[in-house]
Automatic annotation (TrEMBL):
Keywords: Disulfide bond, Secreted, Signal. GO terms for biological process: intracellular cholesterol transport. It comes from Anopheles melas. This is MD-2-related lipid-recognition domain-containing protein. Residues 1-17 form the signal peptide. Belongs to the NPC2 family. One of its GO terms (cellular component) is extracellular region.
Amino acid sequence: MFRALLLIALVPAVVYGNVGRACTNGRPQATNVNILGCTAPPCDLVRGQDVIAYIDFTTDRAVTSMTTVPTATALGITAPYPLPAEFADTCAWLEGSSCPLSANEDVTYRLTIPVLPIYPLVNLSIEIDIVDQAENSVSCFVVDARVVAAN
């Protein structure tokens, strides 16, 4: 019985793992980054499917609006990784909270990243910078990933 309870308790730890690392330039770091189906980087991004991530962070100031700004680096080239407008509006995807946010507020953000079928099979790093209404970083993290073909 104890083994069964232990297994049930450990399943979420196996399915989810903090896969984010800090951004450069002292930008505020996410507390936790969980990507569904990824327990350790590099995370597989399956062509033709959406990647779902849950990002926990704490605001260091009052925020009225936020936008998600992804950047991808692959093969030595860094370029914007555009999100559809409905996914780039960070405030629309907060779990159990909404904008405006107070200073020192703990929030969870559900991020959806579409992986288009035309993307090349490549290893990359994706930087996700969540910026406020003045385009100052509220939270930032980097995930190492690879685009893979659907099975």
